[in-house]
């Protein structure tokens, strides 16, 4: 295994993932932000995923009449759901392949959680489940991953 390999693309100013899940890491200072003393490390680590969810909801102009479907109940999907709720979305449905993630989504305030399949043969049934859950329809869909069901379901 090669050590001290630079995983940085200067043109994009993005720090890549290899080795970034560590207690300490050397990182260019101009790409770092010092957390305020009153913010814990646990709170600080949530800044990036929270910014993703809030930014997505802002760009989508979510309001009190926006019915939302979030496909993917991992960390970013869950935070996007919470941000959509904070922006006033009255009905939020979560869809995922993992029942444990969907249980967390329900605990955090999703109106409904739908377990979907990864099989393309089940696409029609999956779309019907989502349509039934949304009732009057979906105004906006966020997706965290790309599966065949999404491609066919958006037509």
TrEMBL record:
The chain crosses the membrane at residues 68-87. Its cofactor is Zn(2+). One of its GO terms (molecular function) is metal ion binding. Keywords: Membrane, Metal-binding, Oxidoreductase, Transmembrane, Transmembrane helix, Zinc. InterPro entries: ADH-like_C, GroES-like_sf, NAD(P)-bd_dom_sf. SUPFAM superfamilies: GroES-like, NAD(P)-binding Rossmann-fold domains. Pfam families: ADH_zinc_N (PF00107). Residues 75-142 form the Alcohol dehydrogenase-like C-terminal domain. It comes from the Eukaryota. Coiled coil: none annotated. Belongs to the zinc-containing alcohol dehydrogenase family. This is Alcohol dehydrogenase-like C-terminal domain-containing protein. It comes from Cuscuta europaea (European dodder).
């Amino acid at each position: 295994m090669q050590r001290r390999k630079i995983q940085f693309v200067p043109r994009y100013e993005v720090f890549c993932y290899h080795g970034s899940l560590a207690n300490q890491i050397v990182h260019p200072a101009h790409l770092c932000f010092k957390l305020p003393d009153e913010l814990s490390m646990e709170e600080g680590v949530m800044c990036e995923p929270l910014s993703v969810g809030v930014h997505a909801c802002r760009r989508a102009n979510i309001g009190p009449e926006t019915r939302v479907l979030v496909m993917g109940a991992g960390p970013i999907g869950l935070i996007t759901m919470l941000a959509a709720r904070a922006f006033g979305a009255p009905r939020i449905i979560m869809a995922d392949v993992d029942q444990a993630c969907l249980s967390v989504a329900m605990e955090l305030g999703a109106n409904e959680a739908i377990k979907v399949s990864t099989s393309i043969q089940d696409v029609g049934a999956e779309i019907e489940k989502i349509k039934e859950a949304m009732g009057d329809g979906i105004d906006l869909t966020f997706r965290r991953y790309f599966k065949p069901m999404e491609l066919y379901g958006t037509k």
